[in-house]
Design goal:
single chain, mainly alpha, Rossmann fold, 2 domains, 6% strand, Glyco_hydro_3_N_sf
Length: 228
């Protein structure tokens, strides 16, 4: 609310939020958060002790239901490790969710999906800053990537037994430095080319908006060179 000029100080924001029924702050710091001013608001009479108790009660009720105050031995999730989280059943479910979430905008001549039996003897070129970089494949508010569990386009195609050549063209989504010669060399020898482009959180994320939808840096040039 402060950033939108609805209030002028953290104290005013705390008062307005609590009075409006907000009982949880998504804080961006640890020393001077908005709700750290609640004691001052209470002392000034801007909010009442009963109101504060009413706001806190559902928070602790929820935390109790989640078992946050139980001994760890009582929490069945405490015993889970990567052998469970990364079990074949969970990985297959993640794969199914990923496959069903794709949006195919155009599929000329039924090119997709690529099948292993159709790739035998084919030379594939996988190019672009998103072709083999697991760190840029996640959006905002995603968990910390674990590369060993991430299948980039290059890694996935290699698992199909395809003859894959690769070049990023530019190492980061910003694509400020672009190696056209390397791209032309890899693409020129291929029967099929997959160009992997995008933005990623290094280019746009919460509080980092862009004024247009164009591909960043030299990515458009990379795409045009691959098509040419």
């Amino acid at each position: 609310m402060l950033g939108h000029h609805y209030t002028h100080t953290f104290l005013e924001t705390a008062v307005a939020s609590v009075n409006a029924g907000c009982n949880l702050e998504l804080s961006y710091g640890t020393r001077n958060n908005v709700f750290m001013h609640i004691p001052q608001a209470l002392a000034m009479g801007n909010i009442t002790l009963q109101m504060l108790r009413d706001r806190v009660r559902p928070l602790f009720y929820t935390r109790m239901r989640l078992g946050e105050f139980d001994p760890p031995a009582m929490n069945p999730y405490s015993s889970l490790d990567l052998s469970v989280v990364q079990s074949p059943e969970h990985r297959n479910l993640s794969l199914e969710a990923a496959v069903k979430s794709f949006v195919l905008l155009k599929n000329v001549r039924g090119t997709l999906p690529l099948r292993a039996r159709d790739l035998s003897g084919q030379r594939l070129a996988v190019v672009g800053p998103f072709a083999d970089n697991p760190w840029v494949l996640f959006g905002d508010y995603a968990p910390v990537p674990e590369p060993q569990y991430i299948y980039t386009p290059r890694r996935g195609l290699e698992m199909l037994g395809a003859n894959v050549s690769f070049t990023a063209g530019c190492s980061k989504p910003q694509c400020q430095w672009y190696s056209r010669a390397e791209l032309v060399r890899v693409v020129g020898a291929a029967d099929m080319v997959l160009v992997c482009l995008g933005t990623g959180v290094g280019v746009e994320t919460e509080a980092k908006d862009r004024s247009d939808l164009s591909l960043p840096g030299h990515q458009l040039e990379l795409l045009q060179d691959a098509v040419q």
